[in-house]
Amino acid sequence: MSSLSSLEKETALSCCPVCEAKLSSKSDVYCRACGAKVILKCSKCQQAVRAADKFCAHCGAKRWQMLELWRNNAWDQSTIARVGVVAAVAGAWLALYVVLRRRVM
After folding, report:
1. Least buried of 21, 25, 36, 69, by fewest C-beta within 10 Å?
2. What is the pLDDT of residue 98?
3. Do the bridges between strand 40-41 and strand 48-49 make them parallel or antiparallel, or are there none, so unpaired?
4. To the nearest whole number, what is the mean pLDDT of the chain?
5. Could you report the per-residue pLDDT of 23-65, keeping only the tens digit for each?
6. Element containing residue 1 per DSSP (H, E)
């Protein structure tokens, strides 16, 4: 386990952002239940950020949560990702249905 900086300890969470399991220690870098990374880093400035933050508190960069979930191999366990995939598949199916109905008529 790597040692955490004081900034990373401040941003440490009490529960996993992916499976919502309670973390046993603020120094945990990974969730013990699902293995997801608990302390994330901003893709622009590489500072520690919380999973629920929409913007980085240090540089103000917008966080792309779906991309970060994919990078951390946790997108398949996230409710947001599941809803997004279902919406994309439903939209594609509906578009295909409309196109094929117009061709038949």
Report:
1. 25
2. 94
3. antiparallel
4. 76
5. 887 777 788 888 877 777 787 888 887 766 788 888 988 877 6
6. none
Q: Is the dihedral of CA 8, 75, 30, 12 positive or negative?
A: positive
% pLDDT > 90, the chain:
15
Q: Give the list of residues 6+ apart from residue 14 with CB closer than 8 angstroms, or none.
A: 22, 23, 26
CA dist 31 and 40 (Å) reads 12
DSSP string, 16-80: -TTT-PBPS-TT-SB-TTT--BSSEE-TTT--EE-TT-SB-TTT-PBP-HHHHHHHTT-GGG-HH
Spatial neighbors of 74 by CB under 8 A, at least 6 apart, are 18, 34, 36, 37
